[in-house]
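--- STAGE predict ---
source: upstream dedup step, 1 unique chain passed
mode: sequence only
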Amino acid sequence: MAIILNSNSIQQNSEINHQNNASTSTDSSIFDSYPDNTELTISDGETVKYIPRKYTVGKEIKTEFGSKWIPECANEIKPSLGMEFGCIDEAFNFYSQYALSSGFEPRRFSHRTAKDDFGVQFVKYKWIVCSREGSKRKRRSDSKQSRNRPTQRTSCEACILIVFNAEGRYSIYHFEEMHNHFLVHPDFRKHLKSCRSLDYSKQVFLHHLTEASIGPSVGYRILTKIHGGHEAVGASKTDCKNWKRKYNSYIGEADSQMMVNMLKQKKEFLEDFSFEYFTVNDGELAGLFWADEVSKLNYYAFGDVVSFDETYRTNKYDMVFIPFAGIDNHKKCVTFGAGMLAKEDISSYKWLLNEFKNAFPREPKVVLTDQDPSMKVAVSDVFKTARHRLCMWHIMEKVPVKINKEEFDKQWLHVLTKYDADENKWLNDMYKLRYNWIPTYFQDWEMSGLMRTSSRSESESHMFQQLMNSSSTLIEFYTHFDTAMQSQRWVQSENDQKSMYTTLDLATEYALERHAHTLFTHDVILDIQKEMCEAFKHCLCFNVSELTDGSKTFSITDTSVKSCDIDDSIDRDANPNYFDELVHRHSQVTFNFEDKVVTCSCKKFERCGIFCKHIYYVLRLCGVEEIPDEYITKRWMKCVVPGRRVGKLNLLPNQKNELKPILLDIFRNVDACVNRYLADPAKLVQFRDTLEELKKKAGDDMGSKPPMGSKEFMAAMTGLPQPSSNEVTNPQNIRNKGCGTKRRLKSDREEAI
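--- STAGE serialize ---
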């Protein structure tokens, strides 16, 4: 392809329309105003000579428009007319090297295009100018006041013009060498933009910090400590912030689609990973649910009681985050799955709970929520066998009394009558809901005593909110969620290790306690020790009766508590905590010596899965030294979750068969190579040299490849390719309870920032 350029037209187009502005030029005489020799007197009377340093570089030329500077550098890196380059990037890189050695920065400027004989458009000629070309745009008088930023523009005319020649290459046609501004001294060139860059490893490091909810400013401070100072980082805090902005821009409008694609891939390639979503309004994301293999293993072990509650302000779209939480064998929070909803209505909650039910075929025994009316309807419609329990904390904050079932109606009516609250709607509603929150109505439900309030869900929410914020994209949100899950599971593993390989001190000499130490985790052992100590200190048996089936009933008195007989003469106003002290003083324990069946009227074992102090007292009286097998609650045992692990790849049987011989061959070859080279030091040196050659060859191959574009680079770093189209769009105009009014008045300064 031969292109003949008209030299006259090129000469005309090569004239860059800059006007010399004498006011923007800086006279070197300002440096002459500083004295070269100034005597400074120090406190001890001695004097030293202070010689100020002059930061001027380059050759200064006086003109009628002010001083000009010509860079001083090696001739081999200095541009010259007729110099040829294979492409524009090659020319720009050469000029950048010259600029860096001279003390200024280059910038790509305008270009002109043309078409070849085949109609293909190409760049005919291109200007590469000094970064201080042009002038700062003046602020309009009627515009809103903005920040007063410094400018570097001085209308500098230094540039090169490269032209596409007949040989199909670019050659330098015009070179303007003089600058109308100071050139940067070598001491300050480290601050130039061309000297700063975030290489791939630093960007990946910042990405990992982002996953841990560490922002770019803190990330930059960490980089300075790792690399040994600001200069060693090779970038500034602003560069780190710009990288985060570029990362968010890369996600942009494809946020929801990328989130769905990522979770779909996990569902496809990870074993037993569940994921579902639904959209509204022609593709607008409205709901998500996911649960991985480890969450399901935890649910099978600890899913008898499940609590879930809404968490707000975890993402930029104001979608409600709903984690499903329970209690593990160490009495710590464990997450079974999570969901996100755009609306808190009945249909959305029913969809979420149905997906949870599909992922975990076994229903929980008790579901704990707050008093959200939508949740109440959804739970009753979806879970047919589970008992729905309301968070007792919210209710007991307003009605701080604890009374037994027999006295509930009497005392409730007494309170209503005394305080003339018969017509109070809230109290009447709470009375109708008494089966959903009064503890005594849950005595017969297994493990119902594990959670009485939604504090577990609130604790989970607090953990997640430490890593999430209201400006997070969905992709960032999920990485933060994944980080929180890894942390939670690491703590579970640590607790398993402590329970398996360490021992607690014995609180008693009772053989049954020794047996409990071999079965249960440390946190459960502490509760058992407390019950045993209470049994031996405060429990007394005042009556024993024998039943027809050979069982015996022991009447136990706990001397540490007051009588449960209600004294109507006590003034409730003067003693508001009277009912807080009412607990069962007397308990009935029935024990069968043959089949080792034991029950207690307090029903602590049914509610919590461990024996109460009354049973421990009776077992000691009867000489029982081991916990009967049927009363060893599996959920409290050590390492009860089988094979806690990260989800593994799904491989078809034929793929596994194909992969196995390849891996075996690799291991055999590596083993043979190591043994052969270790036996001969000379061969070991040869092996090292071979590796260096391969490394160099790999580097050359990488260097010969075309550079990645910004999107390809970001996709390679994050592992999240941009979708070609967005079938799932980002949620819009979500208004939930936790969104806030967004009506707070802002100052002019805050709005400007």
